[in-house]
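Retry 2 of 3 after timeout on previous attempt. Resubmitting C-alpha cells to design endpoint.
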C-alpha cells in the first residue's frame, strides 16, 4: 500500500502566502514552515538556557515544521478573511480540523498516533510567537525591497509581537531582530 501523507506535505512549496499582497519576493509554505521551525527552536533554546524554562525543544520544533501542513488542503487563507468575524474563525477552525483528519488518513495505522499528536498539538505558544516573528521579518524584507504594501501589516505585527508575554520573544526582539534591517555587507 502507498500512503500519500508526505507527498501531500511536500506540496507546501506550491502554496503561496500573503495572497492579498503584492510581493517582491513570493513566499511559499515550505519556506515559511522552515523559518518558523528555526525561530521556534531558537525561542525554546533561549527560554531554556537564559530563562530556566523546560521546553521540549525537539517537540516544539517539529510542531512548527508541521504547523501549516493542513494548508495543502485549505490553502493559505489571508488573515483578514480568516479572522473577519467569530463565525468565520470557527468555520475555518472546523475546516482545519477536517484537513488534519484527512491528512492522518494518508498514513499507515502504525504512524497515525505520532503524526496526529504533531498535527493536533495544542500547546503552540512558542510556534505562534515564531510564526508572528516570521511574518514581521517578511514585512521588513518587503519594505527593504521598496515595497510599501507591507507597511500596515508590519506596524500591526510589531504591536502583536511586542505584546507576546514570553521573555524569550522579548530577548529575540532585543538581540536578533535588528540585523534583519541590515544589508549583507552591514551584517
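Retry 2 succeeded. Sequence:
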Amino acid at each position: 500500500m502507498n500512503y500519500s501523507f508526505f507527498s501531500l506535505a511536500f506540496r507546501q512549496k506550491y502554496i503561496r502566502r500573503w495572497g492579498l499582497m503584492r510581493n517582491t519576493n513570493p513566499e511559499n509554505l515550505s519556506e515559511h514552515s522552515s523559518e518558523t521551525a528555526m525561530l521556534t527552536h531558537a525561542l525554546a533554546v533561549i527560554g531554556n538556557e537564559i530563562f530556566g524554562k523546560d521546553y521540549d525543544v525537539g517537540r516544539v520544533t517539529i510542531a512548527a515544521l508541521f504547523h501549516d501542513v493542513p494548508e495543502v488542503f485549505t490553502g493559505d487563507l489571508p488573515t483578514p478573511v480568516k479572522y473577519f468575524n467569530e463565525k468565520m474563525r470557527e468555520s475555518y477552525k472546523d475546516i482545519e480540523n477536517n484537513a488534519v483528519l484527512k491528512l492522518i488518513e494518508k498514513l499507515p495505522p502504525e504512524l497515525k498516533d505520532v503524526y496526529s499528536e504533531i498535527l493536533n498539538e495544542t500547546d503552540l505558544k512558542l510556534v505562534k510567537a515564531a510564526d508572528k516573528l516570521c511574518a514581521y521579518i517578511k514585512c521588513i524584507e518587503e519594505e527593504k525591497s521598496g515595497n510599501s504594501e507591507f507597511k500596515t501589516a508590519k506596524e500591526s505585527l510589531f504591536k502583536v509581537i511586542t505584546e507576546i508575554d514570553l521573555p524569550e520573544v522579548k530577548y529575540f526582539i532585543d538581540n536578533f531582530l535588528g540585523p534583519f534591517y541590515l544589508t549583507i555587507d552591514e551584517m
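Attempt log closed. The CA atoms of residues 42 and 120 lie 22 Å apart.
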